[in-house]
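Quick illustration, no need to memorize.
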Amino acid sequence: MTLGLVEEREPSAAPEAIRPAITRGLARPQAAGLRAHFQGRLTIGVLPGQDDSRAVINPDSQRLNNVVGKHAVGAYYEMMREPLPPTYGTVVLPLRWLDRIPQGDRPQWEHIVGLRSRAVLA
């Protein structure tokens, strides 16, 4: 299944290129639960810094974290050619949370997330 969320000020070909796949996927009977899930999270609102109303999806953070965590475990397997050891775990944090990290902990987190730019964490 394909899901696309494209935020653009001007119309472009990008969303139109994936619209048929999204429409087909969400029209499948097996996608009824996913359709209901998204419809329950859809509102019309004005985003910060915007002047006009638009459709806004309140994301299901737990669901997104689960998917990202599974992808991280899969990426580990792909790179290391072995399963993630049972003593390891995954932590999924939005990048916007990095500015909340105490100054003394930032070098460790920079290493963990692979960020080398002080501008990102400044």
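The chain is about 45% helix and 5% strand.
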